[in-house]
Amino acid sequence: MKQTVVPAFILLLTLAACGGASTNQAKTEEKKEAAVATGTAYAIDTAATSVQWRATHKGGFAPRFGAIKVVDGSLNVENGAVTGGSFDVNLNTLTTDPASVTEKDKKSTDLDGHLKSPDFFDAAKYPTAKFVITGVAPYDSTKEKSLLPGATNLISGNLTLKDSTLNITFPAQITVGENDVTANAKFVIDRTAWGINYKTEGSPENWVISKDVEIGFSLKAAKK
């Protein structure tokens, strides 16, 4: 059974707007051409796929975390390796774990609405975040660090949030089986790279929300 890397991102993705995280920030560059998807198509199993986000508020003293759903997508596999693919995340499914909101005067659902509002993702206007694979390469632990042990490859892809698209590269652990593909990853993005700021970029309100957001995913795709 061969291993390679898969995107995910996802996404995902896609969860900046709340603030800080850890190290291992994904390499961020300008948008690139999508990879040519060759081989057999595998449909992402949205019920078996999960994306988590973690960030901090109040200068790092109020961790926030939650989940968001991948709603559509596929991967292509040829000779035991992922060659391309894409997937969509529905920002209207973003939720905050109630355990991460400890203030007496706040509820997790209040934060959900805040993140989906024009203050951050503006999910009514931009309901979909998208990740499109642009390249897959072997993972070299001497050159790249991974938050998740056992990384096998580097995946690069265009991540679209709101009306901005940038290319990110991160380590991932993926296994390609005869009938399915599984992948896991954990990395950090800077929300401000996509222009996601609260109020204005240099405002005190934006400052107390860390720019770094940790994304974690567990993805599964099955042969069509």
UniProtKB/TrEMBL annotation:
The record, for Gene3D superfamilies, names: Lipid/polyisoprenoid-binding, YceI-like (2.40.128.110)
Lipid/polyisoprenoid-binding YceI-like domain location: 41-222
Q: Name one Pfam family in it.
A: YceI
Q: Which UniProt keywords apply?
A: Signal
Keyword Signal assigned to the entry: answer is yes
State the InterPro entries in the record: Lipid/polyisoprenoid-bd_YceI, TTHA0802/YceI-like_sf
SMART domains given in the database record: YceI
Query: Has UniProt tagged this entry with the keyword Transcription?
Result: no
Where does the signal peptide begin and end? 1-26
What's the protein here called? YceI family protein
